[in-house]
Amino acid sequence: MNRRLFFQGLLGGCAMGVLSTVVMAGSLFSPKRGDPLRKELLDTIRARVESDVRQKVKFVVSTINVMGEWAYLAVDPVSMSGKAIDIRKTKYADDADMMDGLTTYSLLRYKNGRWNEISFFTGPTDVSQLAWIDDYGISKKLMGF
């Protein structure tokens, strides 16, 4: 076996081990801007959000918390120029008068080497995501309660 490939594989395996240890650790943390994990979490929900609002988006982040294999995001999608998105031009147009904007709350789970969106609410007028505590057995600390 080529020595270089061996060491690349070894380093890659170590990196995955470190990531798994960080992700699986039970303490609550919030990845800051510039952290690759933050980008990975936001990218996990990006395609769905862009499909829902029918345009490319940037996220204004209120909360990103990670605890063990779970992540909780509270974000506002905005246009690529940073402007608010007109809800009447999204898939939510018919429900706009019953929504509280486009704020999106997402619950993600790390499984099989990647983050997956398990559940989400967009524009709820109440604290709908509290149901996740019972539905998925997550800690209320994950959501900042």
Question: Characteristics of this structure?
Answer:
single chain, 145 residues, alpha+beta, Nuclear Transport Factor 2, Chain: A, 5-stranded antiparallel beta sheet, 5 strands, globular, disordered N terminus
What does the model show?
The longest helix has 22 residues, at 3-24. The chain has a 5-stranded antiparallel sheet with strand order 1-2-3-4-5, covered by helices on one side. It is globular and about 40 Å long. A hairpin with a 2-residue loop joins strand 2 (58-67) and strand 3. It is α+β, with helices and mostly antiparallel strands. It has one domain (26-143): Nuclear Transport Factor 2, Chain: A (Roll). It contains 3 helices and 5 strands. It starts with a helix and ends in a 9-residue tail after the last helix.
